Amino acid sequence: MFQRIMALYCLALTIPFVSMAQLQPIGQWRDHLPYQQVTGVTHTADKIWAATPYSLFSVDAADNSIERWSRTNGLSETGISAIAAEPGGRRLVIAYTNSNIDVLVDEKVININALKNAATAGDKSVRSIYIHQQLAYVATGFGIVVVNLDKYEIKDTWIIGNNGSKIKVNSVAGDGAFLYAATEEGIKKAPVNNINLADFRNWQLVSGASGLPAGVVQSVVSVQNKVLALKNDTLYLQSGANWNVFYRDGWVIKNCTVSDNVILLSETNNNSGRIVTLTASGSFERIIQDAQLTQRPQQAVAFQNTYWIADTLAGLSNFSGASFNRLIPGSPLSTVTGGMQIVHNTLWAAAGSVNANWEPQNNKNGLFTLSDNNWNYFNSTRFSILDTLPDLVSVAVDPANESVWAGSFGGGLVNIKKDNSIQIFKQNSAIQPAYFNPASYRVSGLAVDAESNLWVANYGALSPLHVRKADGNWRSFIIPFSLSEQAVSQIVIDDNNQKWIVLPKNKGLVCFSHGEGIDNPGDDKWKLYQSGKGNGNLPDNQVRCIAKDKNNFIWVGTAKGVGIIQCAQQVFTSQGCEAVLPVVQQDNFAGYLFSDEDVQSIAIDGADRKWIGTKNGVWLISADANKIIYRFTESNSELLSNDVKQIAIDGKTGEVFFATARGICSFRGTATEKTETNSDVLVFPNPVPPGYNGTIAIRGVAHNAIVKITELNGRLVYQTRALGSQVVWNGKDYKGRSVLSGIYLVFSSDENHQEKQVTKIVFIQK
Known about the structure:
Pfam families: PorZ_N_b_propeller, Reg_prop. Strands 36, 37, 38, 39, 40, 41, 42 and 43 form an eight-stranded antiparallel beta sheet that branches. Among the domains are: 4-19 and 30-158 and 290-327, Lipocalin (Beta Barrel), CATH 2.40.128.630; 332-493, TolB, C-terminal domain (Neuraminidase); 682-763, Outer membrane usher protein (Immunoglobulin-like), CATH 2.60.40. By secondary structure, the protein is mainly β. The longest helix is centred in the first third of the chain and has 4 residues, at 11-14.
C-alpha cells in the first residue's frame, strides 16, 4: 500500500512570496525575473538551490532565507538549462541555454565558456550534469563534456555515438566501476579507469539485450552502486548482466533523482502530479501530493529530513512531517512584452504579446504590478472574469483616481479600480471588433489626458480611435488616411493636448487635434508623418514607439533610428513642423547614432535625458541629445538581454525598468522628477558605512537646485547641481579626497534661490 501524506498548510502558503528585492543603490542593478516556474532543485552543504528557465535562487537550510542569483549579481547569463551540486560540498555547476557554464562556490562565480565558444557543429545544449569527485560530466546534444572543477577547465570531450557519430546524451551516472550514459541510442557504459573514453569503441551499448529495451533512454541514476535506467515511464534495474523492471505505476515519470540514498520520482497524470519516494531496494516509502503544490513537479531532492520539490506552476516548496511550505522570491509571473507605466511609485506591466505581424498570441499572463517592492498580478488564475482577455498589451493609469485601464488584443478593454473591482468594455461600449475578425476586439494603445479622458487605439476597427470622456460617454473617430488593417497602437498626448498615434504596418505616425471641444468634429485636424522631406521626415515609416520630453518634443523611434519633432505646437500651422534627426557626440566623432538601430522604446527621465531601447541594448543620451551618457549591453553591464522591448522610469527614485526578451531588470539612475521645493529630503545610504565606495544619493531637493555639502564649521566640502530633484555624490571633497568620519550638513537652494539646510549625512570610517 502507498503511504499517502495529507498536506497541512503552514503560514508560508498564505503568504506566497517570502522574499523581496530591496531598492538598489544608485548605479546598481536588480532583477525582476519570474521565479514561479522552478524546473530543477539540488542542494549543497547548507543551501537548497532552485533553477528556473531564467535564473536561480537559494534557500538557506537553517533559516529559509532566500537569495536571488542572476546576471545582476554575478551570474554570466540568463536562461538556465541544468544545475548540479557537488555531493556534500559547496560547489554548484550551472549550465545555460547557450552552453555557457558557471561554477558558483562561496558566493563567487567562476565562468567556463569554452563549450559556449567552441566551433563545434551540432547541438551543444546541456541536458544534465553529473558530479563525481572533482569532475563534472556534462550531458549535451552531441556527447559528454568533462569539466575539471579544481582547475575550472574542460578536461575532455567524448563523442560516443555509433561509429563515432555525435548523439544526444540525456544524462550520466556512475557506480564506481563504470560510467553510464543515457543516450538516444540507449544506455552505453564504459570502465571508469579507461584512459581513452574519447574513443567511442570503448563504450558498450547495453540496450536492446538482457531485458533493457532498445532505443532512447531518458535518464540514468545510481543508488548505492545500483544503476537505474528510466525508459518510457518505467524504471529498469541493472542486476549483474541483466536488467529487470524495477518500478512503474502508469503515471508519466518526468524525473528520477537519487538524493540521500532515496529514489524520488516526479510524476504527472493529466492535471495531477506527485512525488513518489522509493528505497534503494525498491520498497515504497511514500507519496507526497498536494493539489496546489505538486501539479507539475519537475524534480525533488531529500535534505536534512525534508523533501524539496521543484514545480513549474507552484515554484519551490518543501515537505516535512505532514506539512508543506512554499518558498518563492517576490517576482512577476512571466516576462513582460506589453506596455509599462509607473504612476505614484507603482509599476504596471502588461504581459501580453503580439508577434511581428501584429497577430495575437493568446497570452493569458495578464497584468503585473510592483509597489513597495511587492509584486502582484491580475489574470484569470486570480480573477476568473479576466479569462476572456488574452494578450493584455497596453496599460494606462489615471493619476487622479489611480484607476487602471488595460487593453487586450482580442478581448477588449478592462478597467481595474483601487478596490480591485473589474469592468470589461467590449460589445457594451464603443470598442469595435476588427473588420476582418468580428470576434476579436483589439485594444492596442491607451492614454489618459489631463482631464481624465481615456483615449483608446482600437486596432482593426473602422473607427480606430475612441475617447471615453470623464463623464463616461464615448466618442469615436475615423482616421482619414489609408491604413493597413486599420492598424493603430501607442498613443502619446503632448502639452498642446494633441494626440500622437503610432500607425503599425509601415504607415508612420499621425497627429490629431480635436480643437476646442471633443464633441465638435468641425475643428478636428489630422497630420500624417512618414519618411521623406515634405512628408514629415521620419527616418522610416515603420514606427515602433513615441515619447514626449519636457520641452514638448516628440521623440519617434523607428526601425531605422530616431526622429525628433521639435515644434509640435506648429503642426497645424502654415509653417508646419517636420522631424529632425539627432546628431550625437561619441568620443571624437559625431553622427546619426541611431541611423541603423531598430528603436523599440523611448523613456524620459527627471533630468529630461532620453533612455533609448533597441535590439542592441540601451542608450542614455543627454537632454539636448548631444552626448551619450551610458551605453548598456549584455557584454558590458548586467542588462539581461540586448533586446529591450519596453522602458519605464520611477520618477521618485530614479529607477529605470527594462523589459527585455529575457525578463525585467532595473538600473538605479541618477535623475528624479522635479519638486519645486526641498521636501522629504532623503539620503541613501545614511549613515555611510565603513569602506563604502558607491554613490550617495540625496533625493527630494528642489528641481535643479544648487546643493552644497559642508562640515559642521561651514567649510565647503562639495558643491553640485541636482539632476531633476536628486543629487549624487561619491563621498569625496573637491580635491578628490575621501571625507573623514563625522557629520556633514547638506544645503540646498529653493525655488526663490534661498539657501537652507535640508539634511545631514553621517560618515563612519574605520
